[in-house]
What we know:
Layout: H1 5-9, E1 15-17, H2 24-30, E2 35-38, H3 49-55, E3 58-60, H4 65-75, H5 81-94, H6 97-110
Parallel strand pairs: 1-2, 2-3
Amino acid sequence: HGKTLAEMLVKFDYFIYPGNMGLSIVHALAAGLPVITHSNLEAHMPEIIYLEEGGMPIYFDQDDFLDLRRKLIEIDGVLTLNERNKIKQFAMTKLSIKSMIENFIKILKKE
């Protein structure tokens, strides 16, 4: 109660999203969290590209929660603070409002 999303996210080690992802990716990356989601990339919203660009994604087979469990066991304690900082830095530079506006302007100039 009364806690912001950012205050909650910094307490987590991973961001697990078994459904089809969208803007939640941006929140997770801004908190420096690696994202764990299903591997059916076509089912996700366009924001899934951010994981490939700098989010250190961890994929499991869609609807296979035993595979999700295996992935969690594999990565337990592996992620370093340095890696989390790289994820956060990617989000702060590539997913900032300024960056999004600049990219939007580039798209408009191409048309």
